[in-house]
Amino acid sequence: MAPTSTCLAFLVMLALWSCSAASRGVLLNDVEITMLARHEQWMYLHGRVYKDATEKEKRFNVFKENVKYIEQFNKGGNQPYKLSVNEFADLTNEEFKATRNGYKGLCLEDKLARATAPSTFKYENVSAVPSTMDWRKKGVVTPVKDQGQCGCCWAFSAVAATEGIHKLKTGKLISLSEQELVDCDTKGVDQGCEGGLMDDAFHFIMSNKGLDTEINYPYKGVDGTCNAKKASTHAAQITGFEDVPANSEAALLKAVASQPVSVAIDAGGSDFQFYSSGVFTGSCGTDLDHGVTAVGYGVSNDGMKYWLVKNSWGTSWGESGYIRMQRGVDAKEGLCGIAMEASYPTA
Ligand SMILES: *[C@@H]1O[C@H](CO)[C@@H](O)[C@H](O)[C@H]1NC(C)=O
């Protein structure tokens, strides 16, 4: 932020604060004033505008609580990951789940997750896997995208895995269309911004005989009408999809060593909301509510094994849009359920 705009934001804040504080006879201490200034700066940085003073006060209070939580957490010291006051800092965890992960807190229709799943696992006999893998370094991963306030994580997850297998098959990395899935893949379980499943997205791509490019069928972040002409343009095709045997990080490792893999996780916690760097160790449960893509694995400098996961919340979240999630945990489901419902397209 330029010094002048910081200064301006501060002056505006001060003016607003003195009016409202004076009118209500409230005396604010230094901590409160600093927090107000931080909120103003944060609003400026993220282009946040509130509809009225009531909304602003409500948001400020949420912001304040979140900042306290984040700073308390980071002060804890011996955590392998850090949180930050990111663009989601004025949302309660409930609001965050509702707007980011999707309608009613779910962007995955979990109940029917395995309904269409074939049972073969082509990588079952893979014996030697590299000790680390980062598909980004092999040019198999497109830049991080942003689903916005639309619960179509499932489309982003399926598209990233499809982009990966397409590159591995053809040598061409092409950014593909999530919006086509949101608009056109509506006959089965998948319901656009209201949630869906990666497997059903793969099923659509297969039966549609391909998917259009991101450029030709760009992302809007809202449910739309299927553009049949664009949907009949096929930039990438898949022959099918397979599920990684459930609850086995060993099986997931074989798959991720071979190609980017769609995974479902429980991303509903505050620590996930504010994750900024390091190896995420939770807390989280196994209520799968978010679809992302495992694009590698490795071991951190301090010896922690992790999955490298591509998210669809833009590049300001996490490690430039990615999260490293602890790998090789005691629970067979994997951390946040990452090994429960992994799948990948074939080509
Ligand atoms: C794995 O090996 C077994 C035993 O040789 C074989 O029956 C099975 O078909 C193989 N699986 C795959 C996916 O190739």
UniProtKB/TrEMBL annotation:
<dbReference type="GO" id="GO:0008234">
    <property type="term" value="F:cysteine-type peptidase activity"/>
</dbReference>
<dbReference type="InterPro" id="IPR025661">
    <property type="entry name" value="Pept_asp_AS"/>
</dbReference>
<comment type="similarity">
    <text>Belongs to the peptidase C1 family.</text>
</comment>
<feature type="domain" description="Peptidase C1A papain C-terminal">
    <location>
        <begin position="129"/>
        <end position="346"/>
    </location>
</feature>
<keyword id="KW-0645">Protease</keyword>
<dbReference type="InterPro" id="IPR013128">
    <property type="entry name" value="Peptidase_C1A"/>
</dbReference>
<dbReference type="Pfam" id="PF00112">
    <property type="entry name" value="Peptidase_C1"/>
</dbReference>
<dbReference type="InterPro" id="IPR039417">
    <property type="entry name" value="Peptidase_C1A_papain-like"/>
</dbReference>
<feature type="signal peptide">
    <location>
        <begin position="1"/>
        <end position="22"/>
    </location>
</feature>
<feature type="domain" description="Cathepsin propeptide inhibitor">
    <location>
        <begin position="39"/>
        <end position="96"/>
    </location>
</feature>
<protein>
    <recommendedName>
        <fullName>Senescence-specific cysteine protease SAG39-like</fullName>
    </recommendedName>
</protein>
<dbReference type="GO" id="GO:0006508">
    <property type="term" value="P:proteolysis"/>
</dbReference>
<dbReference type="Pfam" id="PF08246">
    <property type="entry name" value="Inhibitor_I29"/>
</dbReference>
<dbReference type="InterPro" id="IPR013201">
    <property type="entry name" value="Prot_inhib_I29"/>
</dbReference>
<dbReference type="InterPro" id="IPR000169">
    <property type="entry name" value="Pept_cys_AS"/>
</dbReference>
<keyword id="KW-0732">Signal</keyword>
<dbReference type="InterPro" id="IPR000668">
    <property type="entry name" value="Peptidase_C1A_C"/>
</dbReference>
<keyword id="KW-1015">Disulfide bond</keyword>
<dbReference type="InterPro" id="IPR038765">
    <property type="entry name" value="Papain-like_cys_pep_sf"/>
</dbReference>
<keyword id="KW-0788">Thiol protease</keyword>
<dbReference type="InterPro" id="IPR025660">
    <property type="entry name" value="Pept_his_AS"/>
</dbReference>
<keyword id="KW-0378">Hydrolase</keyword>
